[in-house]
């Protein structure tokens, strides 16, 4: 399947991510329709030109007319939707998603999906605090990373189509990872960071401290404002990997603690220099993106 | 001492923080001179209008003519300077600093300082990555927090003067803490966050991962680019407090780990909701500042 401005997209789930997809694709001239629970979100999306039309139920005509269906739902809702409504999909349709965990979701979907429909999974590494379509904003994709996670069951055409969708959305870097490697890396880069931010925010009484803080604490806790429903699901779906990443972090944190405790300044400094060196690689990339 | 545009300031140490102080005060029309190690930094600061004049040595005339001397040095260098050169200070001069730890520094300085000179300590909660006067920028003070840490030895006039300096620098919030409470709070808000950022950055191999990261990891590791010389000194000067803060964080992190490990989703969600609620207080303040 070739992805271009003629492609008809259906976005299932017009939250902050689904809404941002719809905005970006409509801006590129694609025909974009949407399915979401609340009529007010459909009305808003149509009024704002984010989608051309929409429905609060899996309208057979709407589903059948889509070439690409993007599921911007929580993992378990995505699986339930496929179980109940996949008979409505058009033969040859391409299904993709935005789920933050891959191995378990892909395994489940590929095991139940009709053989005449292909699922290629992808993870847009961009988002915003706040939920709901009013917070959607495709500017967050600019310069951001988009990861396609194919399995041996995927066709090269579907992988290429998913990458093309990432390009149309405006992502700065499009890459490929196996689902397993994705879950390991995202366990570190994203899930562990959320665990740290939440723990930092709740580990002690902090009321009134906004008068004394600098930007470092604000930066480290920005994501401590967290969608508990979604993240608790993601953590449990990637439990094994996440626990391993948490342990690696804790070991390193304890190593630093012991340097401080023993007054081993040279080891502290060595660790800080290594930290500075590694962080520079992430800076460079960000500048390159802009 | 009344602080106004007639006040003659001397900044000792024209690094990123000293340079930012000098910029802000010169902009307010004050007479600002500087002492720093390198002639090139003096030349740069004079050429840019950051200071009116400067010296690479404690020039007696320069020191004696200052009403307020701001020490923008590392703690041990500040103490050494006072030990060696305090005889040059003008009687009635006000000494202040920018040190990130207070209890140990204030105790030391107050014990050795001439009785006809007063030291009032303050901590500007703003900074920039990168060091050196070329990185100085007084815009970082806008909306930021400035903490004065008086002891019973301080006069109300000196406390008020320190606050007025904070206002002239452009800080958004000026507050007062005892040195002990400052070190506890800063151990949490600033030192612990740096320990976390460094440990997150070094706990595992991350080369190439800039292709897969989202903003959360970038935000949590921004300060992992760290001045190892300064921060190792600050950590050791506040060792006891910092170790306590590290332990509180680690306990909370382990609590979250056990919820994930046991699949206790409701406890995870409760912790995330508490985190979200607490973080909102920091957001509000930030908006109020702007």
How many strands appear in the DSSP assignment of chain A? Answer: 9
Looking at the chains present, what oligomeric state does this protein adopt?
Answer: homodimer
What share of residues are in beta strands of chain A?
5-15%
Largest sheet of chain A: 6 strands, parallel
Low-confidence stretches of chain A: 285-290
Task: Summarize the amount of helix of chain A as a percent range.
Answer: 40-55%
Class of secondary structure makeup of chain A: alpha/beta
Q: What number is the mean pLDDT of chain A?
A: 95
Rg of chain A (C-alpha, Å): 21 Å
Shape of chain A: globular
Physical arrangement of strands within the biggest beta sheet of chain A = 3-2-1-4-5-6
The number of helical elements of chain A comes to 11
Helix-strand topology string of chain A: EHEHEHEHEHEEEHEHHHHH
For the termini of chain A, the CA-CA separation is 30 Å
Largest interface: A-B, 92 and 91 residues
Task: Quickly describe the structure.
2 copies of one chain form a homodimer. By secondary structure, chain A is of the alpha/beta class. In chain A, 52% of the residues lie in helices and 12% in strands.
């Amino acid at each position: 399947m070739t992805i271009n401005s003629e492609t008809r997209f259906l976005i299932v789930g017009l939250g902050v991510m689904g809404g941002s997809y719809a905005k970006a694709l409509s801006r590129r001239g694609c025909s974009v329709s949407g399915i979401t629970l609340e009529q007010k979100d459909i009305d808003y999306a149509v009024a704002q030109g984010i989608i051309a039309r929409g429905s609060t139920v899996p309208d057979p005509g709407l589903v059948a007319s889509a070439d690409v269906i993007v599921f911007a739902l929580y993992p378990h809702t995505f699986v339930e939707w496929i179980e109940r409504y996949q008979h409505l999909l058009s033969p040859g349709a391409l299904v993709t998603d935005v789920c933050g965990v891959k191995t378990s979701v892909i395994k489940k979907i590929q095991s139940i999906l009709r053989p005449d429909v292909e699922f290629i999974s992808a993870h847009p590494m961009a988002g915003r605090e706040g939920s709901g379509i009013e917070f959607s904003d495709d500017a967050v994709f600019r310069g951001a990373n988009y990861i396609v996670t194919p399995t041996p069951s995927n066709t090269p055409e579907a992988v290429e189509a998913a990458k093309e969708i990432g390009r149309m959305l405006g992502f700065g870097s499009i890459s490929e990872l196996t689902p397993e490697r994705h879950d390991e890396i995202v366990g570190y880069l994203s899930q562990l960071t959320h665990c740290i931010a939440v723990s930092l925010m709740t580990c002690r009484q902090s009321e009134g401290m906004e008068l004394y803080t600098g930007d470092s604490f604000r930066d480290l806790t920005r994501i401590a404002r967290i969608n508990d429903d979604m993240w608790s699901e993601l953590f449990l779906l990637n439990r094994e990997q996440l626990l391993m990443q948490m342990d690696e972090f804790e070991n390193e944190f304890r190593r630093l603690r012991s340097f401080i405790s023993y007054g081993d300044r040279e080891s502290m400094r060595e660790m800080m220099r290594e930290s500075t060196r590694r962080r520079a690689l992430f800076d460079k990339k960000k500048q390159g993106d802009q």
